[in-house]
Design a protein that fits this description.
210 residues, Rossmann fold, 2 domains, five-stranded parallel β-sheet, 12% strand, nucleotide-binding, dephospho-CoA kinase activity
């Protein structure tokens, strides 16, 4: 019997997973992880780049002053948020510093993927240049009333705050217009799991996400 030549491993293609606040992105992402799919969370990457000892944190402290640091040397997110939301120029400075670093961090973690495809889960996938890193977009979608209800319950916040966050994110219509696939997540967790499994089997047949 002649041994077959080892086939070169194909590089995983990247699926972007996004959705508005309260849509159930994290629950959907976990279903993919349970199926053995490599996943990178943009929110985690945003936290990693400002950890103590990383250059970004020193630059932030130098620019905004020591008031943006906690006593243990970690970033005081609440203090920083207050400063940048008062001043659009400061927000632009911070985004200019962090977005390229976050993008690089995401790239490094995606490069480690061993699964047939990998996932970048990001609430701001379509609002930032992160969408350029993916070959296909999956939107987790729910009616706005459900988003508000879930988020108020989950974050113990009020409806006005949730509506303000919704305004800052891409509109539901825009997200849907840019989606390759959509899961309407207004049922129970078992249904969400079955929808993810259905798409997963489709994704395994794709080359380069198409």
């Amino acid at each position: 019997m002649i041994a077959s030549e080892p086939q070169p491993a194909t590089k995983p293609w990247i699926l972007g997973l996004t959705g508005g606040i309260g849509s159930g992105k994290s629950a959907a992402a976990q279903c993919f992880v349970d199926l053995g799919i490599h996943l990178v969370d943009a929110d985690n990457a945003a936290r990693w780049v400002v950890e103590p000892g990383r250059p970004a944190l020193a630059q932030i402290a130098e620019h905004f002053g020591a008031g943006v640091l906690q006593t243990d040397g970690t970033l005081n997110r609440a203090a920083l948020r207050e400063l940048i939301f008062k001043d659009p120029q400061q927000r632009a400075w911070l985004e200019g510093l962090l977005h390229p670093l976050i993008r690089e961090e995401i790239k490094q973690y995606l490069a480690r993927a061993q699964s047939p495809y990998a996932i970048l889960v990001s609430p701001l996938l379509l609002e930032t240049s992160q969408h350029q890193m993916v070959q296909r977009v999956l939107v987790i979608d729910v009616p706005e009333a459900v988003q508000i209800e879930r988020t108020v319950l989950r974050d113990k916040t009020n409806e006005a705050q949730v509506r303000a966050i919704l305004k800052a994110q891409a509109s539901r219509e825009e997200r849907l217009s840019r989606a390759d696939d959509v899961i309407v997540n207004d049922s129970d967790p078992a249904w969400l799991k079955s929808e993810v499994e259905r798409l997963h089997h489709v994704y395994l047949t794709l080359r380069g996400g198409q």
